[in-house]
Amino acid sequence: MMQMIIYLIAITVFIIQCSIMYFIYFKDHKLFKSEMAAAYHANNNLDQFFYFLLVPCLNEEKVIQNTLQNLLNLAGQKEIVVIDDDSDDQTVQKAKSMSGPISIVERKLPNARTGKGDSLNDAMSLVHKIIKQRHLNPKKCIVGVIDADGILSANCIYKLNNAFEDDRVDDVQLRVKMKNPTTVLQTFQDIEFYTINHLIQLIRGKMQAVALCGNGQFFRYKTVTQRMGITPWGNALLEDFELTLKFELNGLRIKYLDDAYVDQEALLNFKALVRQRSRWAQGGLDCWKYLLRVTKSPIMSKAQKFDTYFFLTQPLLNVLADFSIIYLTIKYVIYALGNPDFFLISLFFLVIIGSIFGMIFTLIYLHELKITQKADIAIEESDMLNLDMKVGKFLLTVGLLSYIYVVLFLSLMKSIYSKVRGNTTWIKTKRN
Q1: In this model, does residue 227 exceed pLDDT 70?
Q2: How many CA atoms lie within 13 A of 37 on its CB side?
């Protein structure tokens, strides 16, 4: 009985969340299409802000030059800061071979490889130094974080400038997409980021609770350093959500941009996916230390607090729901084996019902690709390759979306095990 109650609670929460996503998406869809039609519209001079683009690196020789060239090609004023975390390969040499406004911060062991947050904090002293040396206006300086495999759409500076013209906006998060989603697993990740996470951010935008991602985040230098000091990042494995909490606790407003995006590499196999999601899940557990501060905060809104509670407790609900599903599935199979006709008919309907939401997300994803292509902001043609998705790939993708919880259950268990053991180090995801 308890297993069924937990399962029904989890299903109810999921259906409510999806329903809100769809409602907001379709309600604001006309506005979104009009924004995409003006993808390269700039309200004022593109040089009105100075951008510091921080690129944290650890063994990124395969991708660093492509990323730097993309950043150099962007419009506007900028300084690119490569932060090398004592790489073993040719990352530094390849970065130094590039010409342009590029500075390199070289961290060395034993003071290196202590976390992405530490790397980014180290670079802030250089940012502060450059602002003083060049007599830049701190109010007009924007700090951005781009992963070493990150590629920004060509209209990013246009949209970022428009966003930061609003003095109420302190931080901006770009939409995130996967490069060249060739396989079913890569397509799943693309739908997860470009559609599902996008829909979640739309909900959060209504709640003034937009979450930062590890890639494509930007903030006002002066506002953040005045309220949080020159080293705003923490040491949680999920440093982006930790920074989100710290921003909200300090009354900083985060805006989500859905009409410009950052590309990043998708993982190639399930083993890497489980390891990545385990790290993220453990990073969420790291952020539980902020719960008391969030609860007592006179600055955070009730909506922001609710979003935090939901985000931090959702993995535990998922674990309980997964155990319940396993138990109920075993009972169902044992019963159905004695009733083969019932088994086949009920299995057919269960598969269909379980695939409904996966199909809806996939259809929205394909529609979003069409809008992106029409707006002419696609970074590479390969970003749009799923516009010609074959039926077999479509069905496999829908199936993976619908039943990915089986794989992610392993991630949650691994993260809990690592947290209990006190493990705070993880193998870095290798580039494709």
Answers
A1: yes
A2: 6
Angle at CA of residue 45, ends 40 and 46, nearest 5°: 60
**DSSP assignment letter at 145:** E
Residues 6+ apart with CB under 8 A from 391: none
Of 250, 247, 266, 200, residue with least CA distance to 429? 266
Whether residue 41 contacts residue 165, with contact meaning beta carbons closer than 8 Å, is answered with: no
**CA proximity to 407, closest of 281, 264, 242, 241:** 281
Report the distance separating Cα 352 and Cα 90, nearest Å.
50
Residue 233 and residue 246: Cα distance in Å, rounded? 8
Selection from 228, 220, 233 nearest residue 249 by Cα: 228
Closest CA to 82 of 74, 65, 73: 65
Question: Identity (one letter) of the amino acid at 387?
Answer: L
d(C-alpha 154, C-alpha 220), whole Å: 21
214-231 residues labelled b (16+ CB within 10 A) or e (exposed): bbbbbbbbbbbbeebeee
Q: Are 87 and 58 in contact (CB under 8 A)?
A: yes
Q: What is the pLDDT of residue 339?
A: 76
Are 267 and 273 in contact by the 8 Å Cβ rule? The answer is yes
pTM of the model: 0.92
Helix-then-strand count for the chain, H and E: 16, 8
pLDDT of residue 387: 95
Residue 312's pLDDT band (cuts 50, 70, 90): very high
Please give the share of the chain, as a percent, with pLDDT higher than 70.
Answer: 97
pLDDT in tens, 322-372: 888 778 778 777 777 777 766 677 667 777 877 899 999 999 999 999 999
CA of residue 297 relative to chain centroid, distance:
25
- C-alpha distances in Å from residue 72, one per residue of 50, 65, 119, 300: 13, 10, 22, 37
Instruction: Write the DSSP symbol of residue 347.
Output: H
Classified as helix, coil or strand, 184 is helix
Q: What is the pLDDT of residues 130-166, one digit of tens each?
A: 999 999 999 999 999 999 999 999 999 999 999 999 9
State the Cα–Cα distance between residues 425 and 113, nearest whole angstrom: 9
Alpha helices (runs of H) in 78-153, residue ranges in sequence order: 91-96, 116-133
pLDDT at 321 over 90: no
Residues 6+ apart with CB under 8 A from 274: 407, 408, 410, 411, 414
**Eight-class DSSP state of 105:** E
Pairing between strand 77-84 and 50-57?
A: parallel
